[in-house]
Amino acid sequence: MKLVPLADRVVLKQVSAEEKTKSGIILTSQSQEKPQQAEVVAVGPGTDEVKMTVQIGDKVVYSKYAGSEVKLDDEEYIIVKQSDILAIVQD
Fold first, then answer.
1. Is the separation of the CB atoms in 78 and 67 below 8 Å?
2. Nearest CA to 54 among 32, 13, 79, 82?
3. What is the DSSP pairing of strand 85-89 with strand 68-72?
4. DSSP label at 84?
5. Which of 26, 27, 62, 70 has the highest Cβ tally under 10 A?
6. Are the beta carbons of 88 and 10 closer than 8 angstroms?
């Protein structure tokens, strides 16, 4: 199966949470904070008012409480509006 977003929606796949702090402390799964970075896996067509600026494969930072979590084929995704994406991460 495949998720196809409508209008100005974007499907994101979260990057994995850090398991160790910078100082070397190993975190348990309960203390790991969900990362706010994700990879774009699908982009809707946009609307007359909203032109889509993100593309499949972009690494993005999104708003902490944005979107709806969806589980499909044992994979977890987040569906957000493009306006909930705060920035594109460039190398």
1. yes
2. 82
3. unpaired
4. G
5. 62
6. no
Assess whether pLDDT exceeds 90 at residue 75: yes
Contact 60, 37 (CB under 8 A): yes
Angle at 30 between CA 24 and CA 11, to 5 degrees: 100
Binned at pLDDT 50, 70 and 90, residue 31 comes out as very low
Which residue matches tokens 């990362």? 35
User: Which DSSP state fits 18?
Assistant: P
What stretch of H or E contains 2?
none
Mean pLDDT of 41-56: 97
Alpha carbon distance 46, 28 (integer Å): 39
Between CA 33 and CA 31 the distance in angstroms is: 6
| Distance of alpha carbon 88 from alpha carbon 58, whole angstroms | 7
